[in-house]
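User: My instructor asked us to take a sequence, write out its structure as tokens, and then describe one feature of it. I'm not sure where to start. Here is the sequence I was given:
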Amino acid sequence: MEERKLTLLMDFYELTMAQGYFNDNKHEQIAVFDMFFRSIPDNGGYAIYAGLESVINYIESLKFSDSDIEFLKSKNIFNDKFLKYLKNFKFTSDVYSFKEGVPIFPNEPILVVKGPLIECQLVETMILLSINHQSLIATKTSRIVREAKGRAVLEFGARRAHSYDASLLGARSAYIAGALGTSNTLADKLYGIPALGTMAHSYVQSFDSEYEAFKSYALNYPKDTLLLVDTYDTLNSGIPNAIKVHNEILKPMGEELKGIRIDSGDLAYLSNEARILLDNAGLVNTKITVSNALDEYLIRDLITHQNAKIDSFGVGERLITARSEAVFGGVFKLTALEENKKIVPKIKISDNVVKTTIPGFKQVYRFYDEDNKAIADVVTLFDEVIDESKPYLLFDPENPWKEKLVENFKTEQMLLPIYINGKLVYELPSLKEIKQTKEKYFNTLWDEVKRLKYPHKYYVDLSKPLWDLKQELIFKHKK
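Assistant: Let's start with the prediction itself. The structure tokens for your sequence are:
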């Protein structure tokens, strides 16, 4: 795939603000910006973090080309001194982030940029679009995979994605969150995600009979014969013809029908009847895959309530578009500025309590109990140290009288250095390692937090010094 130049993939106001900072000689003032989100999609109990690698790839290639400068000059709004600054632009900021694949929760900083104000502003759009989209798809996939209860989930949404980027990065996000493969061949080439798929209805229709279509496919792929059986009549034609091809073509070759796929109709009824027909024919190892507008709710009903005999799910449009709630809602907010070589916390106050920001340069600690189950996340000032040898008082920042004293706990700093002074200091993990990270951290969550409906709220608390600082700034600005 040819590399595209994405430097100008930013909201235009990032550039107008940047010139304002530059003209007012504020552009080198050190600032701190947090990315966080306010609510979990689908009223879920957790989200899955994805998109960091895209942010890193953007920053690593963040240079304004001659054509970029000429284009901006043509807008007749940017002066020559500012354009010269952009021409010589170099990223020098610090970036801290959660690891990809880790469960994340509302109102905690998941990525922090600390550096010259102008730099923080210029990278805002790409940070948000990368993490918002990929975290949304990873979160949706995780919900689907959990409801599949160990059965394979395959991402089949390439033709329904909102663009080829959404398809590729959606496939990557789905794989992180537990999908075992994708229909997208380019995602296999670029990311090593297994590309899977056999035939469409058009293949069956192109032959004089369904049997001839199945026979052709079996002869072409005897070791991997999976047949789409619902083109005409699943139970009276499709499955009998699949069994016939097994007996007449595959069995004499020493092979076996690997599987069938059902793409329409009552999936519970058809899969149960299909299992009976296959088992009666001695094809107890033949797997049943279903597709057709699946999501976590339908999969849960098929397995839990209808006892459907399904081995794997091909999930398309409702995964790749996160159809039930198609916006993640992450934001990027200023939380501190350097004044007289001192970081001064800043706050945005709103009548809507959830939109009042958490001020300052911060760190996030995740607390674990003796069984390595996550208790809560605590947002602290960046230089705070939590002493694991002493009891720690957790309290709800919105209702501080709700308290819990924890002992015999361990903590983990969640915001890791990615860039220091503009230099990449983070070793990018492989996609398989990110997938393993997701599983490791997901297993630390209580099942009650993972529940599909009415999940237990996972608490994101503030340390006492940070809570005091926030109250102090609210009082100061409300006077």
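For the description part of your assignment, you could build on this observation: The chain has a mean pLDDT of 96. Try explaining in your own words what that tells you about the chain.
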